[in-house]
Structures are given as structure tokens and as C-alpha cells.
Amino acid sequence: MELNIDQPEVLREFAYAQGWLPRGVEILRLEIADAESAHINIRSFFSDDTTLIFQQPLSNGDTAAGAQFSLMVDAASALTAKEGHLPTLLGYAEEELILCLRDAD
């Protein structure tokens, strides 16, 4: 799966399947969070007033993407370990190379 703001229903269903989002919560809006980044960053605004960030390496599918994804997971885990630091890592889908972070309120 490749992250894309033009298919909110696909992202919503993926988030449901991963357990990152409770069933019945709808996506209100998607936006590119950081266009200058070395990976795709999509900020999603939901009907339950939560905001999640989904990240994926730009070079999805090759060996370099896997290495970059591992670095992304390590960095997000390190930030999450710091008390009170947001965004917080909710989880990741290794096969799809997608990270899910709870955004700052």
C-alpha cells in the first residue's frame, strides 16, 4: 500500500485493520504534513477529534526503503520514550512500511 491523500477510505480501512483507529470514526480531511521530508507524511483529521500522522519512505518497496523505515521506527520510538513528547508512536506496519503517530493536540 502506498500512502495517498486522494484515497481517504483506503487509509481509513487500513487504520481500522491495524487497530490504530476505532471502527465508525471517519476521516474528515487529509493533508501533506511535510512536503520537504525524505518520506511521505500525511496528517489525518478524524471525526473523534483525533489527528494521526502516517509516514512512509518515498522509495517504497526497495532495499533502501526498508533501511530508511527501520531508522524511522527507531527515531519515533526514541521520541515516544521521552515523557510528554508528541507525536507518539502508535504502531507500524512493517510489510507496508507505514508508521502511525498520534499528532500533538
Form type? globular
How far from one another are the termini? 27 Å
Percentage of β-strand residues: 25-35%
- Helical/strand content category: alpha+beta
Radius of gyration from the alpha-carbon trace, in angstroms: 13 Å
Number of strand elements: 5
Largest sheet: 5 strands, antiparallel
**Portion of residues within helices:** 25-40%
Total helices: the number is 2
Quickly describe the structure.
This protein is of the alpha+beta class. It has two helices and five strands, in the order αβββαββ.
Features:
globular; alpha+beta; 5 strands; single chain; 29% helix; 30% strand; 105 residues
Descriptive account of the structure:
The model has no long low-confidence stretch (mean pLDDT 83). 21% of the residues are buried. The protein is of the alpha+beta class and 105 residues long. It has helices at 8-18, 63-81, and strands at residues 27-32, 39-46, 51-57, 88-93, 98-102. The protein has two helices and five strands; from the N terminus they run αβββαββ. Strands 1-2-3-5-4 form a five-stranded antiparallel β-sheet, with helices on both faces.
